[in-house]
Design brief:
This protein is α/β, with parallel strands linked by helices and 251 residues long. The chain contains 6 helices and 8 strands. Helix 1 links the parallel strand 3 and strand 4. Helix 3 packs across helix 4. The longest helix is centred in the C-terminal third of the chain and has 18 residues.
Length: 251
């Protein structure tokens, strides 16, 4: 098993300093970079463990606190086990922070994250991979569309609101994406109903994007997140297999 080193890092942006977690194999050899975008609950022990698992597989993984404008993580105090149904005030606190993170800000911040990876001696030269969860799946699409020359693989899992009727709808980024794309949708997800899953796949097809979109049966929105009530072990392991397969094909 590959030993992993994980460290807290600070990344300068045009709007401040992002606190982030960086995990990489402990042998010091440069590895392909992966930018991991959080779900709404943000940078916390579970996401660090996910980064460690990717690093163990041979990648250099950066997990930024995308809510850094509202403070260092945890921006909202969280219990060890997150059950939004039992603790609605958690999501009530997070929701306005999510809404404040516009496409323009995401794309600008992504440039800083990608520059940091490019400059790290522990990250191999060349484009990187992206993976994102829940709201992070939207960030993956905006990043891949805004920085196509820097992104070779883009994955999203249980993404919500990928298709809207507004000019900033994430699915519209398909026209600019050159990466190979994999999305694993939850079949029990009110934030991405079947008709939107179809519209999303159609947009990728129309744009000529190499892609695979799959619906995970019996999985809820958030199925990869082991510290939440939405966790589904079978879905989470399927996600790991799909993500690692995408990265292996790409790098």
């Amino acid at each position: 098993m590959t030993s992993v080193q994980g460290t807290a890092v600070d990344i300068p942006t045009e709007d401040g300093v992002v606190d982030a977690y960086f995990a990489h194999p402990g042998d010091g050899t440069p590895r392909p970079g992966v930018l991991l975008y959080q779900d709404a609950f943000g940078l916390r022990p579970h996401l660090r463990a996910m980064a460690d698992r990717l690093a163990e597989a041979g990648y250099a993984v950066l997990v930024p606190n995308v809510f850094y404008r509202n403070g260092r993580a945890p921006v909202v105090e969280l219990p060890e086990f997150i059950d939004p149904g039992a603790r609605p005030e958690i999501f009530e606190a997070i929701y306005p922070i999510m809404l404040s993170l516009t496409q323009e800000l995401v794309e600008r911040d992504a440039g800083a994250y990608l520059r940091w990876l490019e400059q790290s001696e522990l990250v191999a030269d060349g484009p990187v991979g992206l993976t994102g969860y829940c709201m992070g799946a939207r960030l993956v699409l905006w990043t891949a569309g805004a920085h196509p020359d820097r992104v070779a693989a883009a994955a999203g899992f249980h993404g919500g609101r990928l298709v809207t009727d507004t000019p900033d709808s994430p699915h519209l980024s398909a026209e600019r994406i050159t990466a190979e794309v994999y999305f694993g949708h939850a079949d029990n997800d009110s934030s991405l109903p079947p008709e939107d899953i179809e519209r999303f796949a159609d947009a990728l097809t129309a744009a000529g994007v190499r892609h695979t979109c799959e619906v995970y049966t019996g999985a809820e929105h958030g199925y990869t997140q082991a510290d939440t009530s939405a966790y589904n072990e079978a879905g989470a392991e399927r996600h790991w297999a799909a993500l690692l397969d995408l990265l292996k094909r790409t790098f």
